[in-house]
Write a structure and sequence with these properties.
Elements (H helix, E strand, L loop, with lengths): L1 E5 L4 H10 L4 E6 L9 E5 L5 H11 L3 E4 L6 H6 L1 H22 L2 E7 L22 H14 L4 E6 L1 E2 L9 H10 L4 E4 L3 E2 L2 E2 H13 L4 E4 L6 E2 H11 L7 E4 L19 H7 L6 H14 L1
Parallel strand pairs: 1-2, 1-4, 2-3, 4-5, 5-6, 6-11, 7-10, 8-13
Antiparallel strand pairs: 9-12
Helix pairs in contact: 1-7, 2-4, 4-5, 8-10
């Protein structure tokens, strides 16, 4: 199968390219080249250039596109709404239009940030969205063209794992701080459902082999606070917890507003795929697996 991956040198894109290139022909794109392999073809360009993006799609003739590309720096998006709009919405419109014309499939990686966090329970696909910042608003608007496709899939998620890049992921930042005995301020009042990129890449392979379409939440089977996630990481990697500080997100001076409850309910996708999703501790175990295989 011919599979295109955008944002292919990012945290999730890297894991997907490494995993899917074992059995499929992968066409990877990002601003800079990532991992290479015998089944990986790279084209590095600005995804927001509509003409170049269209030419790439026509050239590679994909059966499936996994659209991972995103600006994950939330405060940067707040300062650069035009760029966030171009990447999260406009590129998705171009890709979805092309794939609809070729009977291709699109997997769009969305975010748990589309909810305002006012509910106390994990969010279901049927719950009303209310994004609090530019990142979340533009990612949510990017879902619309995908859900209008014949073969479009939106996966809302929150990933952890190895980035292999310049910018540390959340879990890498914690692990580095624990190893170097640095102060780690972690939020006790922010809940999420972390899924490792290793696990998500395997789930995406499952979906490619057994397609589902529409909107699904794809995350760990439980939820955990950012603070307790740090404690669990320290325990699992047998590192001291003394430098982990329990703080509130309300005490932070972020430019963009952030949701306190990003927990996702995964019953719908679990039933659709007949798959047992990992819990947050198992996601941490997958982080160790990814680090040991790097």
């Amino acid at each position: 199968m011919r599979i295109g991956v955008t944002g292919a040198s990012g945290m999730l894109g890297t894991a997907i390219v490494a995993h899917l290139s074992k059995l499929h022909k992968v066409f990877a794109t990002s601003r800079s080249k990532g991992i290479e392999g015998k089944n990986v073809t790279w084209n590095c360009f600005d995804l927001t250039n509509a003409k170049t993006l269209n030419n790439w799609l026509v050239k590679i003739k994909p059966d499936v596109i996994i659209h991972c590309a995103a600006i994950v720096n939330i405060d940067f998006c707040e300062d650069n709404p035009t760029l966030a709009t171009k990447l999260h919405i406009n590129t998705t419109e171009i890709i979805s239009k092309y794939l609809d014309s070729t009977d291709g499939k699109l997997i769009y990686i969305s975010t748990d940030s589309v909810f305002d966090g006012s509910k106390s329970r994990p969010y279901k696909e049927s719950d009303s969205t209310n994004p609090l910042n530019v990142y979340a608003k533009t990612k949510l608007l990017g879902e619309t063209p995908v859900l209008s496709m014949n073969k479009g899939l939106v996966l809302r998620t929150n990933i952890v794992g190895s980035s292999r890049g310049v910018r540390l992921s959340f879990s890498e930042w914690i692990l580095k701080g624990l190893k170097e005995n640095l102060v780690l301020n972690l939020f006790y009042d922010v809940k999420f459902s972390p899924l490792s990129v290793y696990d998500l890449s395997m789930i995406i392979e499952n979906i490619i082999n057994n397609p589902i379409f529409g909107l699904y939440h794809c995350a760990s089977s439980d939820s955990i606070s950012k603070y307790h996630f740090g404690i669990e990481m320290a325990d699992f990697f047998q590192l001291p917890v003394s430098m982990i500080k329990r703080v509130s997100i309300d005490d932070m001076d972020f430019k963009a507003n952030r949701s306190k409850n990003m927990a996702l309910d995964i019953k719908k996708i679990s039933l659709a795929l007949k798959y047992r999703f990992p819990n947050s501790l198992e996601s941490i175990k997958s982080i160790q697996h990814q680090h040991s295989s790097n």
